[in-house]
C-alpha cells in the first residue's frame, strides 16, 4: 500500500498567512499541520509515502521531513505546478503508485478518535474497490455527501447537494485499489477543468465497488482551511493534550509504537529538539517515563 499526502493548493482562504508558506506547514497547536495526515498514514501501517506540493514549497517539506528514514519510513516528493483537483494526485503520482493500492489523505484534514488504528488496519486490508469515510455534519450541503441504506451499503454520492439525502459528509481520506489510476485518467476534467475526486468515487459506486465507513459519534474530523477552523483545531488538540498528558499525531511516538524505530532513536530525536515540551515528551517516552498513545 502506498500513501499520498496532497499538500498543494494556494490556501487563499488563509491569506495573508499563506502568502509565503504552504498551508500544511502552519502550526496546529504545537506541531506542523502535515504531521496530522502523516500520522494517519503511519497508523494505517503505510511506510511508503508521497508528498505532493507546489514547486516553491517542496524544499521546505523536505527540510522538515527529510526522506523519512528517521521515522523508519520512506518519504518522496513530487511537484504540482498548479491545482487541478484532488484526483490529480493519481495522475501526478501514477509512477509512484505503480501496481499498488493507495491511500490518499488531504494535507489539511485532522482525524482523531477511539480505535482509529484498528479501523484503518481493517480498511486497508485486501482493498478491492474504494473505501470512503463518512462523518455526520450539520451542514452537509458544503461537502460531498454519501447516502447509505439500513445495512450501511453506499447508495449515492453527490457533491455539495442543495438538498442532501443524508448528513454524512465524505471526508478527505480515501483508500483505493490500483484501478484508481486508470479510472482517473479515463474520466477527464470536470466543467471546472479539474479532476474531481467525487467523479472517481461515483465511478467506483457504479461498479458496485465503493463502501462508506461511518466514523460515528465520539470521533473528530477537522479541516483547517480557514482561520476559524485552524484556531478551533489547535484548541481541540491543546485541550486533549493538556488534559490527558499525551500527544496527538506525534509521528515519532507512532514510529516507536509501530516498531519502525527503537527507543534510542526516539530519545535522540527528543534531544535534538532541545528543551521544548515536545522534545521532553519524546525523551520521557523513550525512557519509559511517559505512557502516551498516538
How do the strands and helices of this protein lay out in sequence?
Elements: E1 2-6, E2 27-28, E3 31-32, H1 35-43, E4 48-53, H2 58-65, E5 74-79, H3 88-92, H4 94-97, E6 102-106, E7 109-112, H5 116-123, E8 130-136, E9 144-148, E10 154-159, E11 168-176, H6 180-187, H7 197-206, E12 210-214, E13 220-223, H8 227-244, H9 251-257, H10 263-272, H11 277-286
Parallel strand pairs: 1-4, 1-6, 4-5, 8-12
Antiparallel strand pairs: 2-3, 6-11, 7-13, 8-11, 9-10
Protein name: Glucose-1-phosphate thymidylyltransferase
Pfam families: NTP_transferase
GO molecular function, one term: glucose-1-phosphate thymidylyltransferase activity
Taken as a percent bin, the fraction of beta residues is 15-25%
Low-confidence stretches: none
List the quaternary state of the chains.
Answer: single chain
Strand order of the largest sheet: 5-4-1-6-11-8-12
Order of helices and strands: EEEHEHEHHEEHEEEEHHEEHHHH
Give the overall silhouette.
globular
Count of helical stretches: 11
* Average pLDDT metric: 93
Task: Tell me about the largest β-sheet.
Answer: 7 strands, mixed
**How far apart are the first and last residues' alpha carbons, in Å?**
21 Å
**Rg estimate, integer Å:** 19 Å
Helix content: 25-40%
Please count the beta strands (DSSP E, at least 2 residues each).
13
Pairing-aware structural class of the strands and helices?
A: alpha/beta
Amino acid at each position: 500500500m502506498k500513501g499520498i499526502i496532497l499538500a498543494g493548493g494556494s490556501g487563499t482562504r488563509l491569506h495573508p498567512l499563506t502568502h509565503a508558506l504552504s498551508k500544511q506547514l502552519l502550526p496546529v497547536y504545537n506541531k506542523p499541520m502535515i504531521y496530522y495526515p502523516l500520522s494517519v498514514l503511519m497508523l494505517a501501517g503505510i511506510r511508503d509515502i508521497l508528498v505532493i506540493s507546489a514547486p516553491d514549497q517542496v524544499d521546505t517539506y523536505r527540510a522538515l521531513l527529510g526522506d523519512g528514514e528517521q521515522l523508519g519510513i520512506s518519504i518522496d516528493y513530487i511537484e504540482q505546478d498548479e491545482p487541478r483537483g484532488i484526483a490529480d494526485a493519481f495522475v501526478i503520482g501514477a509512477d509512484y503508485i505503480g501496481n499498488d493500492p493507495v491511500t490518499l489523505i488531504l494535507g489539511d484534514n485532522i482525524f482523531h478518535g477511539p480505535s482509529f488504528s484498528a479501523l484503518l488496519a481493517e480498511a486497508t486490508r485486501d482493498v478491492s474497490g474504494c473505501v470512503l469515510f463518512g462523518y455526520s455534519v450539520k451542514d452537509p450541503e458544503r461537502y460531498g455527501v454519501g447516502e447509505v441504506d439500513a445495512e450501511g451499503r453506499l447508495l449515492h454520492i453527490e457533491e455539495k447537494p442543495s438538498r442532501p439525502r443524508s448528513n454524512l459528509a465524505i471526508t478527505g481520506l480515501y483508500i483505493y485499489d490500483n484501478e484508481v489510476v486508470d479510472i482517473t485518467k479515463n474520466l477527464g476534467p470536470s466543467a471546472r477543468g479539474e479532476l474531481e475526486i467525487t467523479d472517481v468515487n461515483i465511478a467506483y459506486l457504479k461498479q458496485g465497488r465503493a463502501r462508506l465507513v461511518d466514523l460515528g459519534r465520539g470521533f473528530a474530523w477537522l479541516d483547517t482551511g480557514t482561520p476559524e477552523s485552524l484556531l478551533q483545531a489547535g484548541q481541540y488538540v491543546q485541550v486533549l493534550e493538556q488534559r490527558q498528558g499525551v500527544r496527538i499525531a506525534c509521528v515519532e511516538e507512532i514510529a516507536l509504537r509501530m516498531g519502525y524505530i527503537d527507543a534510542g532513536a526516539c530519545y535522540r530525536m527528543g534531544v535534538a529538539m532541545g528543551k521544548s515540551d515536545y522534545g521532553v515528551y519524546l525523551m520521557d517516552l523513550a525512557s519509559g517515563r511517559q505512557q502516551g498513545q498516538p
